[in-house]
Every structure is written in structure tokens, then in C-alpha cells.
Amino acid sequence: MFKPEELFDLSQTEHASIFSKGEYPWEAIKAIKPYLRDHLRPGQHHHESLGTAYIGHNVFIGKGTVIEAGAMIKGPAIIGRNCEIRHNAYIRDNVIVGDDCVIGNASELKNAFLLNGCQVPHFNYVGDSILGHKAHLGAGVKISNVKLSPGNIVVDMEGIPYDTGLRKFGALIGDHTEIGCNGVLNPGSILGRSCLIYPNVLWRGILPANRIVKNKANTEVIAGRPQEPLG
């Protein structure tokens, strides 16, 4: 859980070297900005525009990507091939999006790295985070990246608190992991590969691979009062 290759298939990105400078995968979060500074070559390669979108000068867009009206790609950013950047998506500073990804309506990305095949399709916030190959966020999922209290994000490494050195650290989401609608991931969440988080779950901490997190909220069914017929 504390090595990049334990969470991510690094063959599913052209930017795997971003993990080479640190021992732990969260160190790549602070490497996104300098990586873009050194490797970004702005250009728009035969992408398709559906209406008017804002695309900053310091942006690369891969071949076959479709950008819908109202989207804003501020940059610096690298957008891969055959992606969908849908209406009203907001891609802020320092974002790397792999091939075949979806960034949907009212979804916002900031200082984020998405491997190939990710889907962030509806009303999502992804900040200071890394999403693995074919990770998927349900509608309304939010990744919280800053603690309410002062100090850096701390993770629990085999029962021992470890200071990541990051004031802003959202989540590491392993390959093929699914987060249900309206879920919230607290700062410093680490989710292994092929996990399933049920809708409305508030998650904190580390989740090993191949786990399911269920929401046990109680519900009550009561008899309704007879209704008068309309008309």
C-alpha cells in the first residue's frame, strides 16, 4: 500500500517517471507541478470542439479528445488522447489526465494526476490526488484535500503516524476502484485496487485492496395516510 506499483499499473500512463523522485506514492502529488514545468509542450492535436471552451496557452491536448462547450482548461495541463471533457468541466492548475478519461459536468480538478481510463463524470472535486487506471467516481463524490485543523496530513503506517509533509493531500485511489454517489474521502485517504465504496460513505484512512465499504445507515418504512383522489 505504500509503493506506487502496489496501487497503480504504471504501464497505464506515459508519465510514470513522476513517481521516481520519492519513496511513497503521495510524494508524486508535489511532483506534478515541476513535472509539467519540465515536460509540458503546449499544443492541440486534432481534438474536437463542440461549441466554445476556454483553453489556456500552457495546455497540451491529445488526438481524438472531445471538448464540449463551457469547459475551462486553465493549465498548466496535459490532457491525453480520446478523452471527453464535458460541458462545464473545470481543469485548474497542474493537472495530468491520461488517455480515454472522462471529466464531466461541474467536475473540478486541481493538482491531480489521472492514469488512463479514469472517470470523473458528474459534480466531482479532485484536488491534490492520484487516481489509478479505470478508477471511477460516482456523481457528487468529493475528495477533501485539506484538514480543518492546522498541520500536515498524517497517514497511519502499520500503526505509526507518519507525517507526509503535505498540507494538501486528497486521496490515492487504486486501479479499478469505484466510489459510490455522494461519497466523501477525507484528506490522506489511500484506497487499494479494486475496492468498492458504497454511496454516501464518509471514508477516512487506508483501505486494503479488494475490499467493500458499506453504508449501514438505518432506514424506516411507515404506512402512509390515504390520499384523496385528485380532481
3D structure, described in words:
This protein has a single domain (4-213), classed as UDP N-Acetylglucosamine Acyltransferase, domain 1 (3 Solenoid). Helices cover 7% and strands 33% of the residues. The chain is built from two helices and 26 strands. The chain has helices at 4-7, 27-39, and strands spanning 43-44, 48-50, 54-55, 59-61, 66-68, 72-73, 77-79, 84-85, 90-91, 95-97, 102-105, 108-114, 119-122, 125-131, 136-137, 142-143, 154-157, 160-163, 171-173, 178-179, 184-185, 189-191, 196-197, 202-203, 206-207, 212-213. The strands form five sheets. Strands 1, 3, 4, 6, 7, 9, 10, 12, 14, 19, 22 and 25 form a twelve-stranded parallel beta sheet that branches. A five-stranded parallel beta sheet has the order 2-5-8-11-13, with no helix packed on it.
Number of separate domains = 1
Strand content: 25-35%
DSSP summary, beta strand count: 26
Q: Say what the CATH topology is.
A: UDP N-Acetylglucosamine Acyltransferase, domain 1
| Distance N to C terminus | 63 Å
Largest sheet: 12 strands, parallel
Shape: globular
Helix content: under 10%
Instruction: Give the C-alpha Rg.
Output: 19 Å
| Strand and helix order | HHEEEEEEEEEEEEEEEEEEEEEEEEEE
Oligomeric state of the chains in view: single chain
Q: Give me the number of helical elements.
A: 2
CATH homologous superfamily grouping: Hexapeptide repeat proteins
CATH class category name = Mainly Beta
**Structural class assignment:** mainly beta
> What is the CATH architecture assignment?
3 Solenoid
Average pLDDT for all residues: 94
Q: Spans of 5+ residues with little confidence (pLDDT < 50)? A: none
